[in-house]
Amino acid sequence: MINRVLIRIKVLQIVYSYYRNETHDLKLAEKELMFSLQKSYNLYFYLLLLMVEVTRLHRRNLDIRKHKYVPGEEDLNPNTRLIDNRFVAQLEINEALRKMIDAEGISWANDEDFIKDVLDSILVSDIYADYLKNPEDNYETDREFWRQVFKRLICNSQDVEEYLENKSIYWNDDVAIIETFALKTIKRFEEAKGSKQPLLPMFKDEEDKLFATKLLHQALLRGIEFRNIIDKHMTNWEAERIATMDMHIMQIALAELLTFPTIPTSVTLNEYIDLAKYYSTPRSGHFINGILDSIVKELKSNQLLLKD
């Protein structure tokens, strides 16, 4: 589930922290990388649990209204389609979700105001109004309702993103990426699989997990070598005027170029140029593109880079 785009972001963050920390402890850096990736994976389960908690709050609210001192007709006979949603009922008992909740202490217990805000946004939406009017009342309709809610109200909500980023410092760059995986999971659910519906694993395969640790190791262990290569190609630039983040990005890019023969050169260059645009200065993308392009040409001419 954690893709290589997110892995590269996390490695960049750890490399940046590594050079700011005078101890330069490689084992500690690797431990922090895996901890950060685990936190990203936890966010996936928080997003799935969010749908369950919103439903639970709506159920409590309807029950409170039913027991008012003088309940009205709507209080006594509310529309229960949302709390009877079959997809959420299945999600609530999902074995993989329950296991992760217990193992990682995942909970929205201290976030009732946030849960209420999400519920309120749903109840006033056209998505909810259309759901109540839909004559089709089945599992597929219930699942599609939550897919639309997630896609249009949660994934596109700046308030949700800001709240999640404030909830954990490890989620500052994760929310948009992890939301896409939660959305993908909703689409994959099948009623027949009941509580055993599989969720996405932390890594797609062992190769991606090894990519994370190997990229970090190579970027740090060969850091001096890579920085010397970079310095050779900065003849028109003063090293002290180069943004620190630019140096880190190019260092990791070289680690990937020279360590992973199956990753095309163009893919690596595009990924790190994009990182530079987001994490460094406005001119960093153009600058890094020029330096890396020059380095790649030299490496290929010296037959030190043998891939396209």
Account of the protein in words:
The protein is mainly α and 308 residues long. Helices cover 69% and strands 0% of the residues. The protein is built from 15 helices and no strands. Helix 1 (4-20) runs parallel beside helix 11 and helix 11 packs across helix 13. The model has no long low-confidence stretch (mean pLDDT 93).
Write the H/E string, N to C: HHHHHHHHHHHHHHH
Give the low-confidence spans: none
Q: Give the overall shape.
A: elongated
Q: How many helices in DSSP terms?
A: 15
What percentage of the residues does DSSP assign to strands (E)? under 5%
Percentage of helical residues? 55-70%
Report the radius of gyration as a whole number of Å.
Answer: 24 Å
Which tags fit this structure?
308 residues, mainly alpha, 15 helices
Give a short summary of the structure.
The protein has 308 residues and is mostly helical. It has helices spanning 4-20, 26-66, 73-76, 86-92, 95-104, 112-123, 126-133, 139-154, 158-167, 175-188, 206-221, 223-232, 244-259, 265-279, 284-301.
How are the secondary structure elements laid out?
Blueprint: H1 4-20, H2 26-66, H3 73-76, H4 86-92, H5 95-104, H6 112-123, H7 126-133, H8 139-154, H9 158-167, H10 175-188, H11 206-221, H12 223-232, H13 244-259, H14 265-279, H15 284-301
Helix pairs in contact: 1-2, 1-11, 1-13, 2-4, 2-5, 2-6, 2-10, 2-11, 8-10, 11-13, 12-13, 13-14, 13-15, 14-15
